[in-house]
Design a protein that fits this description.
By secondary structure, this protein is mainly α. The protein is built from 16 helices and 6 strands. It folds into 3 domains: 84 residues, 2-Layer Sandwich (Dna Ligase, domain 1), CATH 3.30.1490; 84 residues, no CATH class; 150 residues, no CATH class. Helix 2 crosses helix 3 and helix 11 packs parallel to helix 14.
Length: 358
């Protein structure tokens, strides 16, 4: 039995309207799946590997990111996104439209905690940086830096991972542990070192570890990158002559961050790292050097400099003799404390060393 034309026309019209509504729903989400809030409710949610989108939709509803899990899932299926979403952590809020949530999940725009470690930062400064970003507790991170099993696993012979946390920008995922982050940072160090420096270090008198120790001192001392090779030359010249390195940053390592100034109490403090009191290099790095400082340690400038003193503009004045150095100290430090490298009381011994090597 044929339907009257008018009735058939109405059915066709209803079908067209229904299809149009479905198109609008798929394209714009319409009010049925509109955001339930204004964006104040922010959640970091884990869409685990192998987890169904249906289960994740229920989590979205429970956390009040979407108003209806069923409608969100229906909308995802209309778009054909239900089989294309990628696993990972996502930062979502209740002001996002379902289309935006699905777009992020299909694109795999997982939530990452990004932070940057500046060149020269010590493990103590990195720990404070991470604590300031609320990524880890300071002591929690430092414990792993000194972890004997982890050091053994990483093949690091020192007492900590100091020197091997490569200065760079890192992306952490929620749930990452301090040990996992340390593995990531030391792996980056090894990758860069092997690519850029390993072959040349084999040709030098210093070992890889000694190069990193020296580079960490250069990194702390140098404000201007172009002065790194000159500072490296001072340290290497003093090492060849058996002179103490007397580097200010070593005097405060493990006590406080080096900010360009040390006191008489600092340089007389007894620590294994204080190169005012010990001979040669300290037992380990005092920070995590970047490529420029490592390059300078491997390839220092060729000079006769034995001293340098900081000027107010961040640059340094370099000297070949103790008299010239003391004159520079009086000029640039204005007697705020003793010379950068040698307290006045030790001049007699210093002159004896210089006389021996001339």
């Amino acid at each position: 039995m044929k339907l009257p034309l008018s009735k058939k026309y109405r059915i066709q019209l209803l079908l067209v309207i229904a299809l149009f509504l479905l198109f609008l729903l798929a394209r714009f989400g319409l009010f049925l799946v509109n955001p339930p809030g204004t964006g104040i409710n922010v959640q970091i949610l884990d869409f685990g590997q192998g987890q169904s989108l249906k289960k994740f939709a229920l989590t979205l509803e429970r956390q009040k990111i979407v108003g209806s899990a069923g409608l969100f899932l229906f909308y995802a299926r209309l778009r054909g996104d239900d089989g294309r979403v990628k696993a990972g952590y996502y930062q979502l809020n209740d002001g996002m439209k379902p289309g935006e949530i699905l777009r992020r999940m299909v694109a795999g725009e997982v939530y990452q905690l990004r932070f940057t470690v500046p060149e020269g930062y010590s493990i103590y400064q990195v720990a404070e940086l991470l604590a300031g970003r609320r990524l880890f507790e300071r002591d929690e991170f430092l414990r792993e830096c000194f972890s004997t099993p982890l050091l053994r696993e990483l093949g690091i012979s020192g007492k900590s991972v100091e020197g091997y946390l490569y200065p760079s920008t890192y992306d952490m995922t929620p749930g990452m542990t301090p040990a996992e982050l340390i593995r990531l940072m030391t792996a980056q160090f090894e990758k860069v070192f092997e690519r850029e420096f390993a072959d040349r270090v084999k040709e030098k008198a210093l070992t890889k570890r000694e190069i990193i120790i020296l580079a960490s001192m250069i990194e702390k001392e140098a404000v201007r990158p172009e002065e790194r090779p000159l500072i490296a030359s001072v340290f290497r010249n003093r090492m060849r002559r058996g002179m103490p390195l007397q580097s200010d940053p070593t005097a405060v390592y493990g006590v406080r961050a080096f900010a360009g100034n040390v006191t008489k109490n600092d340089i007389s403090r007894v620590t294994p790292y204080n190169t005012y009191l010990i001979g040669g290099l300290p037992p380990g790095p005092i920070g995590n050097p970047g490529n420029g400082a490592i390059e300078a340690a491997i390839n220092p400038a060729t000079t006769r400099y034995l001293y340098f003193v900081a000027k107010k503009d961040g640059s340094h004045y370099f000297s070949t003799s103790l008299d010239e150095h003391n004159s520079a100290v009086r000029k640039y430090l204005k007697s705020t404390r003793g010379p950068t490298f040698k307290p006045i009381a030790g001049q007699a011994r210093e002159r004896k060393i210089l006389a021996t090597v001339k």
